[in-house]
Amino acid sequence: MPCREFHGQLANPKGKTAKLLKDYVCILIDDLTGVDIGLFEFDPDSTLYCFILNADEQIYLRYGGRDDSSAEKYFNEDSLEEALEKGLALHKQYGASELEKTERPKPFFPRDYPEIAKDEIAKKKCVHCHHLGQARTILLQGQGKLDKMKDLWVYPAVERLGISLDVKTGLVVDDADGAAKDAGLKKKDVITKLEGHPVHTFGDLQYLLDKHPAASETLKLTMLRKDEQVEIEIKLDKWWRVTDIARRAGTHALEPFPEFWGKPLDKGDKRKLGIDENQFGLEVTKFWVKTNAQSAGLQPGDVVYEVDGTTDCEYTGNPVVWIRLNRKPGDSVTVKALRNGKKLEFSFKLKARPW
User: Fold this and answer.
1) pLDDT band with cut points at 50, 70 and 90 for residue 3
2) 14, 27, 73, 238: least CB-packed within 10 angstroms?
3) Nearest in space to 35 (alpha carbons), one of 23, 47, 51, 22
4) How many other β-carbons are positioned within 10 Å of the β-carbon of residue 345?
5) Alpha-carbon span 38 to 269, nearest angstrom
6) Measured CA distances, 127 to 22, 105, 239, 247 (Å)
7) % of the chain with per-residue pLDDT over 90
């Protein structure tokens, strides 16, 4: 279901969804200015995110999240209705004192990010989700505390672990591969816990996965398999948190600026140009401002396939991301590109920001 259509389903519910929502008080927030994001913590690069909670601000579950393939993959009427049913069941348990109360996190508001305070807040503009990712990167960079190889890989994808979920049912395993399969995960298993913490939706699972230490070598999952609780331990590789951070607002605020924008080529386009599918291959698109790469001669349509002698990388196939992660403002880089079948080379200095 496209996100706009799904948003309409929430605004004007029908059928089973409407019946379930009669027991809810629904609030739509499109400006984060006064929201305690310490409590309502979520992936700021999502298009829509839902919290199911009670009047005591105890969060029962989350509904939302995404992966690199689509912002809308995990939104559908079936999984929403299942989340609403689980929310009502958890509320009943809470009322009967059968659900343990959680401690409220330390309050944190968008205004606590200096970048947002001096811009959106001071100018009385709306604070949007993407502002949070940008402000976090800018804050950590300014404090000299940003770990480029850890802090940017947020909200990992379960697919990276070899887990494919039935998106209509939420946490029912549709297929297992790689590390998850080696650990014993099976089709039709229902994931119920991550490291002992209950999960009710994909949103819960991805939220807790984000909290799991990057340096950890294992991940414990508990599943329901034919009415029996089964626990497995997945072995994690060094890059288990890696996703396509080129799509994230926090990455766009990362210094240095690579001096060009581009669109990654798919495997077919690389093959046509004689580029290995695992190597860099990015078509330069447009130059929004005059950049050092453009002054050096790089043009829209050029295909960048090498940077400073590097043609491939185990954590990204995007040369723009590689530059951001491995270079700093003031560094000089040399890129090689294809133009009409000719191999060209360009050298230029990196600025911190494009403007």
Assistant:
1) low
2) 27
3) 51
4) 11
5) 43
6) 30, 21, 32, 19
7) 94
